[in-house]
Structure formats: structure tokens, C-alpha cells
Specification:
Number of strands: 8
Order of helices and strands: EHEHEEHEEEHEHHHHH
Strand content: 5-15%
Helix content: 40-55%
Largest sheet: 8 strands, mixed
Number of helices: 9
Distance between the termini: 49 Å
Strand order of the largest sheet: 3-2-1-4-5-6-7-8
Structural class: alpha/beta
Number of domains: 2
Shape: elongated
Length: about 270
């Protein structure tokens, strides 16, 4: 259940991709009015706008509709471009949603009051987002912009905090390791099993226990590491690398990860002595 909204805001939403498709309906459900959706092409923007009450698709050269907050749910590289090309009203509150784009990007757009509304979550088409448990991080160039973004964030999530650009970048980096790289490795595992006519479902219990154990581990998941690398099981490591001969990139990745696991375990043992 979403937190009850204390102040209804008019929101202009730039972007019609996965993040915007999840965020737009959440904003409407929280009591805000998504005034318009803008996208690189009109079709996706219109498709998302039709899902939102009293919302329209917007594209230049039409006049920019007024809004209390303009959100840039766009790829990181598109943020500077939008800041430089959209005819922003003086004093408009404009916030991007990126983890790795610093607040300093708004120095090139002095007419606006810039900010960040960063959702720490992965977004995919067709998957619902439980917004109240999604951590949302706010940063702004001014107190009024910060206050407005906090209202918006707190209407969506029960986990809202202020966070500076340097820490947000480190958080985003950690998220890439925890989510993107983990997903890639699971894809490799599925492909290797498929080559042996084995179903990926065989790994599901192992994956669930691995993640549950890592999340519960104190002080670090490093302390619950298992497998041939942490055991320094040279024959098994060699057999695995040989089995990956048809996939040299995965073979190299296996060797690098195994070396990192072994080095981390050696460091941990040294710290205990």
C-alpha cells in the first residue's frame, strides 16, 4: 500500500521507457497529476499517457505545460541534452533519476532548480514495483527543490533519504555489482546448463539460499563464501576452466572471479591472525 500523499503535485515526465512506465502509474496512484509524458518518439509517450488520468503526450515545438516538478526518467547521456534544449521556465524544479549523474550537471542550466530523485531498483517491462520498499534518494541545488522532491519521494516510498552525489555514485556502483553483474552470471549459468540439456530450474533453490545467506551474513557476505576457489581446490578449478574452453570470455571471467575469491579469503584469514 502506498503512503498517503500530503501534497498533490503536477508532474511533467520525460521518458517513456521502463522507469517511466513504472513511475508514471505510481505517481498517479499516490495522488499526483502526471500532466504530460515526453519521449524521443511520440508513439511510446502517447501509449504511456493513455494509461494516466488527464495526461497528454508532449513534444516540441508545442509550449511546455506547466508543472511543479519535471522528472527526467531518461538514459544518463540524455540528461545534459534535455537540460540544454528544453525551454524550461525560470525557476522550474527539474530532477533526474540517475545514479551516476552528479548534481553538478545542473550548473549548465542556471534557469532551473535542479535535483535528483534516485530509485534504487531494477526496472523491467511487465514486472510490478513495490514502491513503498524501494529506497529513494534525494539531492537538490536549493532548499525549495529539495523540499518538493522530498514530498514526491515520501508519497511513493517509506525509505527516503538525502544523499550527495559522491555517495550516490558509490551506491550505484554497488548496485551494478549486486544486480547487473549477478544477473549476467545467472545468464551464463543458464546457458551452460542448457548446453548440457539441463533445466535452469535446478539452480533455483541454490540461488535462493545463496542470496538469503548473503543478505543475512554479518558483517559481510565474504564470510559465507563457499566453493572451489575459497577451498583452493586446484583440480576442480582446472576441470571447470577446461570445460569452458568453448567460451574463452567466460573462461577468463571464471579465472578472474576465482582469483578474486581466493585473494579475498587470504586477506580475511590474515586479518583474523
Amino acid at each position: 500500500m502506498l503512503p498517503s500523499v500530503s501534497v498533490a503535485l503536477r508532474v511533467g515526465l520525460f521518458g517513456a521507457g521502463r522507469v517511466a512506465a513504472a513511475l508514471g502509474p505510481a505517481l498517479a496512484a499516490a495522488g499526483h497529476h502526471v500532466v504530460f509524458v515526453a519521449g524521443r518518439t511520440l508513439g511510446p509517450a502517447q501509449a504511456l499517457a493513455t494509461q494516466l488520468p488527464a495526461c497528454q503526450a508532449w513534444a516540441p515545438p508545442a509550449a511546455l505545460p506547466p508543472a511543479d516538478v519535471y522528472l527526467l526518467a531518461v538514459p544518463d547521456a540524455a540528461v545534459p541534452e534535455l537540460l540544454g534544449t528544453v525551454p524550461w521556465p525560470a525557476g522550474a524544479v527539474v530532477a533526474h533519476l540517475a545514479g551516476a549523474v552528479p548534481l553538478a550537471v545542473f550548473e549548465a542550466a542556471p534557469r532551473v532548480r535542479g535535483g535528483v530523485l534516485y530509485p534504487l531498483q531494477t526496472f523491467s517491462a511487465g514486472r510490478a514495483i513495490d514502491w513503498p520498499v524501494v529506497p529513494l534518494f534525494v539531492e537538490a541545488t536549493s532548499a525549495p527543490a529539495e523540499a518538493r522532491l522530498l514530498v514526491l519521494a515520501r508519497s511513493l516510498s517509506q525509505q527516503v533519504a538525502l544523499l550527495g552525489s559522491a555517495q550516490r555514485l558509490r551506491l550505484h556502483l554497488g548496485a551494478v555489482w549486486a544486480s547487473n553483474f549477478t544477473n549476467h552470471l545467472l545468464g551464463v549459468a543458464q546457458a551452460l546448463l542448457a548446453e548440457a540439456s539441463l533445466p535452469f530450474e535446478l539452480l533455483h533453490p541454490l540461488v535462493r539460499e545463496t542470496v538469503a545467506k548473503a543478505l543475512a551474513a554479518q558483517p559481510s557476505p565474504f564470510g559465507v563464501q563457499t566453493g572451489p576457489a575459497v577451498r583452493r581446490d586446484a583440480p576442480t578449478l582446472a576441470a571447470h576452466e577446461a570445460a569452458l574452453a568453448a567460451h574463452p570470455a567466460w573462461q577468463a571471467l571464471y579465472a578472474q572471479l576465482s582469483a578474486s575469491i581466493a585473494a579475498t579469503e587470504e586477506m580475511r584469514r590474515g586479518q583474523k591472525q
